């Protein structure tokens, strides 16, 4: 399924999780996804295609429209997590490189504070796919 407005197919991994892992209070006292993402992000339901090409609803977190120009940057730790997941689930390497390049460009636009994170993300280009 093409990502709306991009002309590009978006790849990802679908996880089945309970509602208490998304929002509210977890019984194991760990952070929910909403707490991890923080106040600059909001929960959204989107339609995606699963591995059987069926359209299903999925919950994701997107930057709030009011925060899209506030200099948000992406940590290298987060991008490593995304890249490992994509590669472990056989996403096309072209798309993985697009994710890396997008994170680098986002950080370059964000601020000098993101310089070290940008350098660490760029190192992911040198790591070959486990295939």
Outline the biggest β-sheet.
2 strands, antiparallel
**Helical element count?**
5
Poorly predicted runs are none
Summarize the helix and strand pattern as letters: HHEEHHH
The helix-and-strand class reads alpha+beta
The tally of strands reads 2
Q: Terminal Cα separation, in Å?
A: 24 Å
Beta-strand content: 5-15%
* Average pLDDT score: 86
Q: Give the number of domains.
A: 2
State the share of residues found in helices, binned by percent.
25-40%
The main sheet orders its strands as 1-2
Radius of gyration: 16 Å
Structural shape: globular
What does this structure look like?
The chain is α+β, with helices and mostly antiparallel strands and 131 residues long. The protein has two domains: 1-68, no CATH class; 71-131. 37% of the residues lie in helices and 14% in strands. The protein has five helices and two strands. It has helices at residues 19-22, 33-37, 76-88, 93-110, 115-122, and strands spanning 41-49, 55-63. Strands 1-2 form a two-stranded antiparallel sheet. A hairpin with a 5-residue loop joins strand 1 and strand 2 (55-63). Helix 3 (76-88) runs antiparallel to helix 4 (93-110), helix 3 (76-88) packs parallel to helix 5 (115-122) and helix 4 (93-110) runs antiparallel to helix 5. The longest helix is centred in the last third of the chain and has 18 residues, at 93-110. The chain is globular, with a radius of gyration of 16 Å.
């Amino acid at each position: 399924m093409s990502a709306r407005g991009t002309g590009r197919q978006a790849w990802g991994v679908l996880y089945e999780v309970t509602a208490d892992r998304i929002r509210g209070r977890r019984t194991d006292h760990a952070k929910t996804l909403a707490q991890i993402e923080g106040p600059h992000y909001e929960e959204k339901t989107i339609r995606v295609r699963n591995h059987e090409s069926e359209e299903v609803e999925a919950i994701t977190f997107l930057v709030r429209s009011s925060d899209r120009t506030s200099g948000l940057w992406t940590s290298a730790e987060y991008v490593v997590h995304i890249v490992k997941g994509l590669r472990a689930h056989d996403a096309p390497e072209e798309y993985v490189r697009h994710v890396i390049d997008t994170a680098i460009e986002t950080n370059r636009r964000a601020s000098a504070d993101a310089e070290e994170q940008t350098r660490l993300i760029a190192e992911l280009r040198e790591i070959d796919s486990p295939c």
